[in-house]
Amino acid sequence: MTVPNPLQGDAENKSVVATPITRQEQTASTEVMDRRSFLKLLFLGWAAFAAVAAGFGTMLLRYLFPNVLFEPKQSFSAGFIGDYNVGEVSERFKKQHRVWIVRDSEKIFALSTVCTHLGCTPNWLPNENKFKCPCHGSGYYRTGINFEGPAPRPLERFKISLSPDGEIIVDKTVKFQQEKGEWSDPDSFIVT
Amino acid sequence: MEAFKDFVNHVTRPRVLFPLLLVFTVLMFPPNEILFKINKKLRLYKLWTRMGGIIFFSLMIAFFAFGLTDPNFKKIVTKPDNVPIVGLLFLVNFFLWVSMKQAYENDARMDEGKESSEAGDAKEKVLVWPDLVYIEFISLILCTILLMVWSILLKAPLEEPANPTVSPNPSKAPWYFLGLQEMLVYFDPWLAGVVFPTVIILGLMAIPYLDSNKKGRGYYSFKERKMAISIFVTLWLLFWIFLITVGTFLRGPNWNFFGPFEYWDVNKLEVLTNVNLSEYFYMIWFKRQVPQNIILRELPGFFLMVSYFGILPPLLAKTLFRNIFKNLGAFRYSVFVVLLLIAASLPMKMFLRWAFNIKYIIAIPEFFFNI
Ligand code: FES
Predict the structure, then answer these.
(1) How confident is the model at residue A30 (pLDDT cuts 50, 70, 90)?
(2) pTM above 0.90?
(3) Of A185, B163, B268, B347, whose CB is crowded by the most CB atoms within 10 A?
(4) Measured between CB atoms, which of A98, A120, A149 is closest to B171?
(5) Contacts of B256 in chain A (CB under 8 A)
(6) Positions of chain B with pLDDT under 50
């Protein structure tokens, strides 16, 4: 009405040209296919799609449960008490089992090497007498108690026991958390 | 020279650098009239002139050139991982300077009653082909050449296959996540990793609804949207660019802070024993045992949080933000203020950690609820 808009004019022109063609197409297609066969095809198409999706879905689920697990055993033997010196933090099993064996004057316990903040692996710094995480700087005493950085709770300890022939057995399926008061549990350490 | 290096090492400790930068940024981008006047009196706006820019960037280049003579500085700055961040520092400052220079020139023009210098752009017609496409094509070629030269000159920092039992020391996130990684040092993972990123995204989405200022659209201007520019630039510079820079250059082994001229000593001892607010409150100020009851124990923290998010907003509406409250209305004002307070809580908590080793304001590890 007021100002002629070149863009709008363009669009109108196009639609004028385009309408006859689409109309022709529509009439052409209705001749070939009626409503019922269209719905049938539609249903078939969706059914095929659902079948394929379900097939892939089950394959995906199957994939989550592998036949063989190449994981180290959850419980392992950690040698004899005599292998550890008093006051030592042993890193012998860090690589394979993700466990530190710590011996102090009274007991031996197994400490998890997973930082309680976001799961990096801290380093044992013998000179400073602490575990220090390289990711955000959490620090733990040799007992596993967190004292610096963002870690919200102490490192976890694992079940540790002596086999009849005096071997130390660490069982990682059972863990003990300090903030739940579980470190006093006799299963969480061996008195030496 | 050693004295200068020592000085820089001291100044770049975040507890010093962060407050300095905060004050400086707020003065450089004054959000209100009072600060604007201070800016004028100190002639800080001179930075946004050609001369100011030349001086600023010469100083910056001189600093880096000097730094490269120092082995420790050189090692960090020329590490292939970190080279792009050096580029980022220059680029961010450069584009900030260009836009602010144009904004101040426009402000001056409009003070004289003239149109902004971009006003003519809308009337002029330029063809996409060939004008725009040519420019794009040339930039494409230049960028490809740059990337090729870059990849030939600097080795890609590839390491050995990942191993869950070995975390490299320090372990750094990709550069664009270093801001988040830095936040993770001060906040619990659920806050720094989930809540804050969500709030950042929601906050950015809320901007068009909160900023009702119709001026300053389509042309550069500082005067007409002081507050908006100030808030955005401060948050962006300090919480994103600054944190990325800190994460890249100043965090070393064991995630300790190191000055740019400091040797990355794996055995650097920094005592960071953290104390919760409840422990401060009961043990240090009242010389008593921390109570067993969780609610009682965390009472000071709860009190602080409630007053921060409950009492501060109405108080600000009456005083500092009176005009904003009038413009936005109660609902939009609350959204605005809560977003701003959340943003402000970030540096506050960081500062509390740096200055007083405060670990948590509210600490209930029993329920994974730590703030
Ligand atoms: S993962 Fe160890 S400090 Fe964050």
Answers:
(1) low
(2) no
(3) B347
(4) A120
(5) 137
(6) none
